[in-house]
Amino acid sequence: MDAKTSETNTGTLAVGEKSWKFPVMPGSIGPSVVDISKLYGQTGMFTYDPGFTSTAACESKITYIDGDEGVLLYRGYPIEQLAEHGDFLETCYLLLYGELPTAAQKTDFDYRVTRHTMVHEQMARFYQGFRRDAHPMAVMVGCVGALSAFYHDSIDISDPHQRMVASIRMIAKMPTIAAMAYKYTIGQPFVYPKNDLDYSSNFLRMCFAVPAEDYKVNPILAKAMDRIFILHADHEQNASTSTVRLAGSSGANPFACIAAGIACLWGPAHGGANEAALKMLSEIGSVSRIPEYVKRAKDKNDPFRLMGFGHRVYKNYDPRAKIMQRTCHEVLGELGIKHDPLLDVALELERIALHDDYFVEKKLYPNIDFYSGITLKAMGFPTSMFTVLFALARTVGWIAQWKEMIEDPQQKIGRPRQFYTGAPRRDYVQIARRR
Ligand code: SDX
């Protein structure tokens, strides 16, 4: 991919008496970049940017976030419009291929995904190796990583056809694998996918149907689930996506790369925040206890954070959180839940935080994880499944980013350097002579 344009300018780095020039390239929208790929060769110095707060690790055309304005675009389309008018498989097509599908393309894509939803029957035996109380994310990391043991015909990453087959398989099988992880932990039999159901209805049925009776999918809940998947589908170079790219840069097979992304997403600072946010709301328990927790969140000596608040990029309201809040009200309304104490706590906590100087100064707003937990709990999911649902939805983003990296002629194995402050060279000391 060539981002260099005719308007490429140059920037100058001056250190002491010396100075060097580096190309400055404009993005199609958003910040320009200074190409420092030759900095070490020219200067003998590295840049230092822990957490990559100012570092573009790659060129991408997939997702764009304007953190100051609270804007999220998938291939240029605002998340609000995609969530309002489209469905999750349309978003998958858009992220993978770069354009919204025509009616014929959508029908074909839906057909191809639907007919890859079953997993190899021996996968079912793989689950038996876990304890029943295993966290479903541990099961997901294990089972997704094991997929490459079953699908040898889609792991040659140099073959565009195999890359696409692996992409379709991942998108199609994640709901089945996730539902099986849930069923296993609650001791219920696995439910096979049904090809006459749409993606999200199929998933809800595989999670909540039991052989003892017919299960009718609630279309309002299926639509809410589908919208939640759209909101979580991709998000630029977040920690788990960067993990997938780095794993893929070594040539690892796509199933192993997605398993690495799942492992990274699990952390409470990232995808695990939805589970942590609901636990936090439950621990706060009532509106009267909010001031105590807000005080703790502001205390530098207290590791407590308001889970579901703050974001590396958004310094404004996460646009997904607004849609998530609306979906939360829709789901609670459909389920006849007139009063949810957790929602009361969440709404009051948000109101207080958005008027508190600490959060205003640090530009800490609710993120997507703040309301998702309340919604998913109301839909019947245990907190341990929240991050699994995030991983299910994010799989298309990971795959699209992985595919973009593999197809980028400039890509090479990712191998960051370091700012070394350890011991200089020194000779070995025999144990008898050590003090
Ligand atoms: C996701 O990257 C993505 O795109 C991720 C994601 C995606 O879709 O992939 O959007 C999904 O992971 C959303 C984020 C979910 N995590 C949480 O809700 C956990 C709580 N949030 C924080 O841990 C934190 O806000 C992060 C991790 C999300 C962002 O951390 P940064 O960018 O490293 O910022 P920071 O920790 O340096 O915080 C800046 C300041 C600090 O104060 P000072 O040291 O400057 O005095 O803000 C404070 C922090 O102490 N702060 C908070 C806070 N978040 C940041 N204080 C209280 N509560 C919080 N939640």
From TrEMBL:
Annotated GO MF terms: citrate synthase activity
GO process annotations (BP): tricarboxylic acid cycle
Keyword Secreted: no
Xref: InterPro entries: Citrate_synth-like_lrg_a-sub (IPR016142), Citrate_synth-like_sm_a-sub (IPR016143), Citrate_synthase (IPR002020), Citrate_synthase_AS (IPR019810), Citrate_synthase_bac-typ (IPR024176), Citrate_synthase_sf (IPR036969), Citrate_synthase_typ-I (IPR010953)
Pathway where it operates: Carbohydrate metabolism; tricarboxylic acid cycle; isocitrate from oxaloacetate: step 1/2
Gene3D superfamilies, alphabetized: 2.20.28.60, Citrate Synthase, domain 1 (1.10.580.10), Cytochrome P450-Terp, domain 2 (1.10.230.10)
Reaction equation(s) it catalyzes: oxaloacetate + acetyl-CoA + H2O = citrate + CoA + H(+)
Cellular compartments per GO CC: cytoplasm
Residues annotated as catalytic: H311, D369
Keywords noted in UniProt: Acyltransferase, Transferase, Tricarboxylic acid cycle
Listed PANTHER family: CITRATE SYNTHASE
Family: Belongs to the citrate synthase family.
Record-given protein name: Citrate synthase
Lineage of producing organism: Bacteria, Pseudomonadati, Pseudomonadota, Alphaproteobacteria, Hyphomicrobiales
